[in-house]
Design brief:
- β6 and β7 (207-215) form a beta hairpin.
- The chain contains eleven helices and eleven strands.
- The strands form two sheets. Strands 3, 4, 5, 6, 7, 8, 9, 10 and 11 form a nine-stranded mixed beta sheet that branches.
- 35% of the residues are buried.
- The chain is globular.
- The chain folds into two domains: 1-214, no CATH class; 220-372, no CATH class.
- The chain has 403 residues and is α+β, with helices and mostly antiparallel strands.
- It has helices at residues 2-11, 38-52, 58-70, 136-154, 167-184, 222-239, 247-260, 300-303, 313-326, 375-385, 393-398, and strands at residues 81-83, 88-90, 104-109, 120-126, 162-164, 197-204, 207-215, 265-276, 279-289, 340-347, 360-365.
- The longest helix has 19 residues, at 136-154.
- It binds zinc ion.
- Zinc ion binds at residues 185, 189, 191-192, 217, 219.
Amino acid sequence: MGARDTLSTAVGLMEPDLGHFIAPSNGSDTGPTYPESWNDILMPYLRDTLVFHGCYTTEDKNRHLKFFSNHVTRWLGPGPSYNPDTGLAVMKYPSSLTNDHTPFEVSCCWKSKLQSGKPIVRYVTDVIPFDLEVSRMAGFKSAIEVIAILDRVSQSPKGELVLRAFPKLWSHITERMMEYEQKTHSEPCNKCSPSAVFVGFDLVDSVSFAKMYWLFPSCHKTPELVQGVRHMLSSCADNSPTVFPGILQNWANIENHFNSYPDILQPRILSVDATKFPEARVKIYARRIFSGTNDFSDIEPHLSLNGTISLPEAFRDTCKSLWGSLVGPEDSQPGKGPKYCLLLYEIGTKLSSKFPAEGVSAKLYIMCQEIPRVDSFLAQRLYQNCAVLQDADLIKYELRPRE
Ligand SMILES: [Zn+2]
């Protein structure tokens, strides 16, 4: 079932009880029937994650669940159906958010020891076109409507969910992405997924901080993609010069690095989020594609932009030991092990006098589906290598003794 894979992929951890996610047999010989809506399927996941793992009051939990049910499920498209011949779920839209096309992924975030092992719960969703047209352009068009929904909710009276968002800025970027799509990617393309825009939420106490992600065409080469990113950032700077005075300066350092390694670095996603509201946080996600070996030494120069970003020592050591524990020598050969990892660059919006050290920071995203290991192995390695997880019950649960 898709939702189970989604959770275990996103969190790389436990698999909750699935008894209430799959409808029981309807008594005929046609087998089970799935609930028809994503709301029925996904609400239990979100509720269980909030109840068992997060640190939320009952009122906070109800606000987040109500927002999901009333609004978010409107852009997830229809839920899966059931094929009695194969026994498998049939997805109605080919979302690229997850490997099995589920347009939803829940994850847990441990950023600080102050959380005492209790994660911030987050989820991200694909914007499925309202008319179910399978195209990136349809995804962008529906994203405009989704942003209008977020705009309305963010202005709701006190007492309801507090939603932090940047509707005007997000609409501006979405419109520029539509123009870019029309100009550079209007022919039918069988290489790119129709997914164009993801929307995510960080649930911090009673506040939901929204995040938008725009996907660039995966069939484009790096030099073209770099130009596309610069075009988007330039448009933001022109539109809001006081908000983004330094973004192009800070981006230039990353752009130069990408242009030096066009065959192994590929920008994939632009993100602008409200997690530091009222300031906008701007990020670029890029693939580090492994063409030969995949040691940490193949990653580090791109995290640090060849040493121009000073990586905090503890961060660098954690990345190195964790990657080394997940990817063994047998995986670090051409054609084996992970094909890529994701590098996240946060681009400072302000002018930086200490360019580039203060203007750009980087993170490593290890894609669990690229690591050929079971969840319990991943949990064990996370526990062994990440100090912040020592109190995390969710990790300890996965490490419990099995019969
Ligand atoms: Zn394409």
